[in-house]
Amino acid sequence: MDGRLDDEVVRVGGDARQRYYDASGYGRPLEGNEIELAPVEAAHLLFRGDLDAVDGMGFREFFAHATDAVDRFGVRYLVYADLRSRGFYLSPSRADWVPAPRRDDDFVVYERGQGPPDGDVAYRVRVVGEREMVSAAAIAAARTDSGDAALAVVDEESEITYLDLGHPDLDGSTSVGLPDGVPAAVLDDRVICWEPPVSLYEQGFFGRPLSGREATEGDPLQLSLVEAAYLAARGAIDLQEGSITVRDRGRAVEGERFDRRLAAYTELRDRGVVPKTGFKFGADFRTYADVESVDSLGHSELLVRVLPADHAFAPRDLALDVRLANGVRKTMVFALVGDDDSAGDGDIEWLSVTRLTP
Amino acid sequence: MDGRLDDEVVRVGGDARQRYYDASGYGRPLEGNEIELAPVEAAHLLFRGDLDAVDGMGFREFFAHATDAVDRFGVRYLVYADLRSRGFYLSPSRADWVPAPRRDDDFVVYERGQGPPDGDVAYRVRVVGEREMVSAAAIAAARTDSGDAALAVVDEESEITYLDLGHPDLDGSTSVGLPDGVPAAVLDDRVICWEPPVSLYEQGFFGRPLSGREATEGDPLQLSLVEAAYLAARGAIDLQEGSITVRDRGRAVEGERFDRRLAAYTELRDRGVVPKTGFKFGADFRTYADVESVDSLGHSELLVRVLPADHAFAPRDLALDVRLANGVRKTMVFALVGDDDSAGDGDIEWLSVTRLTP
């Protein structure tokens, strides 16, 4: 059977509706038995030999034609074919093809065994090539209430990585009674409490004893600048008069990043979650939702990377973070902090990204 | 016992030589029984209570003084104390303190049970704070023939990550007979061979069948731009006349990075090692040293990130790469490619970085 191009959609007549749409979920029905196929659908049918030609073009010629004529045809075809090979029916997310299509989605993927027009949606997929930058705001906006938003990244060798875009669970149960005005000193890019109350470390999990592995009770406690800035803002520590403020020191060594990190740190603490450095995982923080004592710490649940709200991801960096988090059984979370947020005036956008195997 | 400051070194008399140097490897002997201590050593003895005061200063006062007066005192003290707590003796890497000190090293760490003046060296350690950028060239230069070079990174919470700096094993046994002039076409940012010889994928592990998981013999083969540029330079594939060259397309989509990646790819292939995309690991390549057939692929051994020779690492990025590689049982390798190298005229510097637990 042959199709014909009509403004970069392929129309097929004859028994096309029964053969392609009803039986296999390809295309969109028009009048009578005619259907129209998106270019990726037509290419897939040509490749399978289920369609003979489009305007006289076989698979190769049509593929080359569509690569030139249709935006991101190559990567979209690869994802379409991959999801088909995994047993899914899927439709291009176009007006009049699926209910309530969204602008940046490429495909609506139906639950296994279901298809258009009224199948349940398993995933709403956006496709990108590994060389395209993806704005963090766009990823955050792509999330749905039903949690079915996914990003499909096609790498240079045409392998596909699927990522699930979601809302992280940031509720913790840690409750810490802060002390009042504990003397502390800024020393270079750290802060030291020479005589800390035991609870600050033991229950609050603030800082690290100066003697580290050999710590004994009453040891001096080192605080990171972000921990110290949080505690100083609450009056829990008292820095020597005349010394530079912790926040100024933080800005001096990290610039605006310090304000963003402090905003994320503060919101996590306010939610009962304890953030500690994520350095060993290449992140800003790892987090513990339920700390009662440092002697009975559980596994940390999240890795948090703090980014400016206008950040754009290189997909490779995203793949790196998500892969690492998966390997250490944590969830990768991005805190997108706007200019207002870092002054403490706005909401931080929290975005989780996890591996997805369709 | 008390010490006195003399140009930011601490001199101690009495029985100091026997007590600190001979018994515990602190300091450097002067005339008679006098020794001199580096500030980190004096601070450590003060903290332990083995030294009473330096110019009247106890631990706290001396620590604060040294933080102001001595370059990177805080992070160096933390590493010194950590290695001591792990049971090592170590000496500041200073002229006249250790044999053949090197400029950028901070400490010479002796094998367990050994110490100055003639203990065997376990590690030569350079200390950095997590906020300091570290030039890739400096890391490459720090490596020794005996493989004992290490980087100690102190994070914002004063936890320490030790990294071993080495020379990776890049010898492979893969031998591929390349075809001659196989027709291929550039399609967007990939290349397709419509009728590839089976050996190109099956033995050479070039490309990926267009139909991916459902591939059958004779399927079209997609090549990445870097694979195609390598094959085109050897006459193995023949791109349609008049089409843009693969290398130009690569530069158009990746800039100079494409040339660097092609240089690294080429050297690996020339050494019998097969590079494939490392995208899922956030790297440029993963590599297989001994490919006989794609049906019997072993575990890939290396993750390669290609960087310009003048790259400077944020220690956090380094920690991320090394942690991920460790988690997937691969070795992280950086290919440092200079401007001459990417034209194929020079040597690429290959640097391995692995986790170290002293």
What this model shows, in words?
Chain A contains eleven helices and 22 strands. Chain A has 358 residues and is α+β, with helices and mostly antiparallel strands. Chain A folds into two domains: 2-166, Trna Endonuclease, Chain: A, domain 1; 182-356, Trna Endonuclease, Chain: A, domain 1. In chain A, the strands form four sheets. Chain A has a ten-stranded mixed sheet, sandwiched between helices. A five-stranded mixed sheet of chain A has the order 3-4-2-1-5. The first copy, chain A, has a five-stranded mixed sheet with strand order 14-15-13-12-16, with helices on one face. The longest helix of chain A has 15 residues, at 256-270. Chain A is elongated, with a radius of gyration of 27 Å.
Describe, in short, the structure shown.
The structure is a homodimer of 358-residue chains. The first copy, chain A, is α+β, with helices and mostly antiparallel strands and 358 residues long. The first copy, chain A, is elongated and about 85 Å long.
